[in-house]
Amino acid sequence: MTTTYTVTAERGTSGVWVLECAELGAVSQTKRLANAADEMREALAFQAGLDPDELNIVVDVVLPPGLAEMKARAEKEREEAARLTAAAQASTHDLAVAMRNAGMTVRDMGTVLGVSYQRAQKLAAS
Mean pLDDT, the chain, as a whole number? Predict the structure, then answer.
């Protein structure tokens, strides 16, 4: 059985990440955020009386307000970019099908779409 603990990671003034699991009262630090879960695993296992392999550690990064807002904006923009990419792919497919139905050659379709004729053929066929 796996037990999940949440560890908060906050950048300290000396350039290290301060790690804390409030549930168990465990505190540690690491230079690299990527090592946070590994740094806390043994201490949490000891305090919880569990085998280290039985722990699932979720690291919750606490950023200063300015950085947190920038991160949220970047995530929102990535989601929007993914949505727009999917819409562009659908529109390109629809255009390729319409051009094929209008009797255009795949080479001409490729020129119009800005892709190779092989890609134009695949777009019209999918």
Answer: 95
